Amino acid sequence: MGQEQLSKYLSGFHRQWLSEGRARPAGEPLAGAILLVDIVGLTAITQRLDEGGMRGAERLGELLEHAIGRIVDVVEAHGGDALAFAGDSVVALWPGGPGDVKWAAQAALAIQALPPDPQEPMRLRCAVGAGELTTREVGGVDGRWMLVVSGEAIDEAAAADRDAQAGDVVVGPQAWQRLSGATRGERRGAATVLLGLEVEEDPTALSWADPGVDLRPLVPRVVRDRADLGAFLAEFRRLTVLFVSLRSGADSLDALQSAVEACQTAVQHTEGETYNLVSDDKGTTFLAVWGLPGSSHEDDPARALAAAMRIEGHLAVGGVESAAGIATGRLFCGSYGNATRRHYTIVGPTVNLAARLMTAGDGVRCDDATRKAAADRAVFGDGGQIEAKGFGEPVAVHRPLALNAKVRAGGELVGRQAEREAWAADLDALAEGRGAVRLVVGEAGIGKSQLFRALVDAAELRSARVLEGAADSIGASTSWLMWAGPIQALTGGDSERLLALLGDDERLLAWAPLIQDVLDHGIEPTETTAAITGPSRGHATTELLVGLLRSAAAQKPTVLVVDDVHWLDTASWEALEAAAHVEGLLLLVGTRPLDGPAAHRWARLRELPGADERKLDSLPPADAAVLAARKLGVDALPEEAVALLTERADGHPLYAQELAWALVEGGPWCWRTVRRPGVARRWRISRCPTPCRG
């Protein structure tokens, strides 16, 4: 995507700012007028069109393109700049100068006079504020510098908007004073409803300098990636949204820079997307999203929780009072605007809910959908209930208290007979005291985690002790994270059980306090362990972990299972390689295809005597069809659907399941109820007369 196209996703004011080459972070005062335009009832329209699947998404994209595009046209024609967008609203700026408030008010009247869409009329609220402003460019993680404007004019427009009704143009007190006497209005609260305005001269459209810098880091990743395709797809996607309110303590430029940088870093660490930074009379709010095209993960809700908790901790240390709200659900995604100014938006009740959760109290709060999706990754406390726009009943609130190790996938395994038979032989050998190293490689979605769950179940049926370690993208930079699960299973965090496993090994007993680096056992450091630092501390901790495994394997047939080692931290890798040499231990390790240093470590495991590596391939078509049927909750798929899955998914388990779901969610298939006398109700799928959503 060229610079000209990318520039449309930045405000003219930001482009001008960039052209002046300021040092970053930067800030400066500004006076001017602000126009806030809200689309009334967009949440309800979004919910209704969501029922139409892909056709509904296309229609909503058309409506927003038409509505927002015309608003931006009017703003620019009246000498303003579309400064920012927030889903169903536009924030426009008139930099300080003669007529700034007048042209903002005139633009608002012109917007309200626009003819409505005959098929889907959208009602608007307009609010005008005036006063001093502060402009700041902050952030900078991965080059993503964000411009945020705050101050009196923003606050006044936001307060006036709360007094506005659909069809109104409401003007704040300072803005009203700066309008000429050629106005008509009536008071409403502290603001005034503008009824008329006489204008004697035409506005002058603003012009902005060429930024002269690479704009790619300054726009969301989805804009860079998807715009190269020539157009954005209007779609409904399941997303997780995070709102973080910087309530106090981030007023200065340095404090705001530190806070935003902490937010961006946490989002980057969990592979989310920094979405927006906005300011109003309630403070500055940071927005992030997980699940956008090109960056979605099956555990996005857990990633958002991890980011929010990390942000909360960092901000608290920096003296910033904050609150966060997280919600998960289907949202509209797409690009809207006019020929010169565009925005990639996410719209829907889930956004409103995340914002509402943010205001429900201190700390991090999430909705029930997020809690359910991350139930195996976090411990939650009850946060009561709240009322939220777009939700007919009170919404349950949950407070994440702590993150857990990743839990393996459940459900009955389909296929993989050769792998299961080989594992049964390994368990037979383990019962006789012979361990082994078994390595499994498979790309994302190929069914590796499902296989591991089945193999673990088989080991437990044989009464083997199973220790499960979970590498995790969220904790990829946290030393020893993978080992917390196995050690918890061995000792329960009890120091006496730990010491009993170490027996009379004096060297390991002296190093016992090092276990605190892995899992809290309440053991105070000694002079000996306090003096062990740097690489020596890592080597000693590795020996301690291996000693615990050796003792466990000598007592009872023991299996150590470690999946997703492509996320493994360096310290955990070192201990895993050492564990592979423990006599009588059956080690099962899984990964996606590797490169770099991890590939060399994997090669060393593969080259161990007796080690066996298996590469998981796609399933046979019949097995993939069974998986897809289970995804839909039906006994079997029609032959036509099986043929399509075979052709398109090529036996890939995840692709087959997602394609099957797409067939009934906005596609040509739908669920039908099957009722037979004396038989519980069941379901089947068949072709719908017209495309529909299940």
List keywords for this structure.
Alpha-Beta Plaits; 4 domains; alpha/beta; six-stranded mixed beta sheet; 23 strands; 694 residues
- The CATH homologous superfamily of the largest domain: P-loop containing nucleotide triphosphate hydrolases
End-to-end C-alpha gap: 36 Å
Mean pLDDT: 84
Beta percentage is 25-35%
Count the beta strands. Answer: 23
Class of secondary structure makeup: alpha/beta
CATH fold call of the largest domain = Rossmann fold
DSSP summary: helix tally:
24
Shape call? elongated
Please outline the major beta sheet.
Answer: 8 strands, mixed
Proportion in helices = 25-40%
CATH top level label of the largest domain: Alpha Beta
* pLDDT < 50 stretches: 671-694
| Integer count of domains | 4
C-alpha Rg (nearest Å): 29 Å
CATH architecture of the largest domain: 3-Layer(aba) Sandwich
SSE blueprint and pairings:
Blueprint: H1 3-7, H2 12-19, E1 26-40, H3 42-50, H4 53-77, E2 81-85, E3 89-95, H5 100-112, E4 123-139, E5 145-151, H6 152-162, E6 169-171, H7 173-178, E7 183-188, E8 191-197, H8 221-227, E9 235-248, H9 253-269, E10 273-280, E11 283-290, H10 300-317, E12 321-337, E13 342-347, H11 349-358, E14 363-366, H12 368-373, E15 378-386, E16 395-403, H13 417-431, E17 436-441, H14 448-461, E18 465-470, H15 484-491, H16 495-502, H17 506-511, H18 527-530, H19 534-555, E19 558-563, H20 570-579, E20 585-591, H21 596-606, E21 612-615, H22 621-632, H23 639-649, H24 653-664, E22 669-676, E23 679-687
Parallel strand pairs: 4-6, 12-14, 17-20, 17-21, 18-19, 19-20
Antiparallel strand pairs: 1-3, 1-4, 2-3, 4-5, 6-8, 7-8, 9-11, 9-12, 10-11, 12-13, 15-16, 22-23
Helix pairs in contact: 3-4, 4-5, 9-10, 13-14, 19-20, 22-24, 23-24
